């Protein structure tokens, strides 16, 4: 795994041996950040199920102002901290929350994030429940963009209340979906809904 662009560009993340982690591939990550390239600079970001910290660190590399990394697995948190140390990410750029993601979303009381990344454990098929919690969380505001990865065969709706899916791309058994508040689509702040398939 490597950081694709920005101030940490080309840096490899630490190697690890953890069966519970299946990091976002460079191909999917590049597609995702191409979609968000005009929204990253200065953004407040949260990386849910951060695993290795891959997505959040990529966002910081590309100019995000601050990233909160949420993860309950202690092995993942060790890996994330090692990546911060390897890349010398300033402590002022991030914070780590050792907490269950659903509980975090339900209890969150701060300002909405600009961007939410969510990559739930691929063995648990919980993307639908993450979206249910995120769509009613204070973390999700009218200008928030949310990117979530899910299995092709697990449940995922196109709408969760006022939160709607505007992009869906399939990569084999994985789906990358982007969601926003419906008012953003009405104001043409986001592209029309699209669906793509990749082998």
Please explain how this structure is put together:
With 199 residues, the chain is an alpha/beta fold. Helices cover 27% and strands 28% of the residues. It has helices at residues 26-35, 54-61, 74-87, 101-107, 127-135, 182-186, and strands at residues 44-48, 66-70, 94-97, 113-118, 140-151, 159-160, 163-171, 174-181, 194-198. Strands 1, 2, 3, 4, 5, 6, 7, 8 and 9 form a nine-stranded mixed β-sheet that branches. The longest helix has 14 residues, at 74-87. The protein is globular, with a radius of gyration of 16 Å.
Judged by helices, strands and strand pairing, the structural class is alpha/beta
Number of DSSP helical runs: 6
Low-confidence segments, given as residue ranges, are 189-193
- CATH-defined topology: Rossmann fold
In CATH's first tier, which class applies?
Alpha Beta
Distance between the termini: 21 Å
Shape-level CATH architecture: 3-Layer(aba) Sandwich
Report the mean per-residue pLDDT as an integer. Answer: 89
Rg over alpha carbons: 16 Å
Number of domains: 1
Binned strand content = 25-35%
Q: Helix and strand string, N-terminal first? A: HEHEHEHEHEEEEHE
Based on DSSP secondary structure assignment, what is the total number of beta strands?
9
Characterize the biggest β-sheet: 9 strands, mixed
Helix content range: 25-40%
Shape: globular
Relevant CATH superfamily: Vaccinia Virus protein VP39
GO molecular function: methyltransferase activity; nucleic acid binding
InterPro entries: DNA_methylase_N6_adenine_CS, RNA_MeTrfase_RsmD, SAM-dependent_MTases_sf
EC number: 2.1.1.-
Pfam families: Cons_hypoth95 (PF03602)
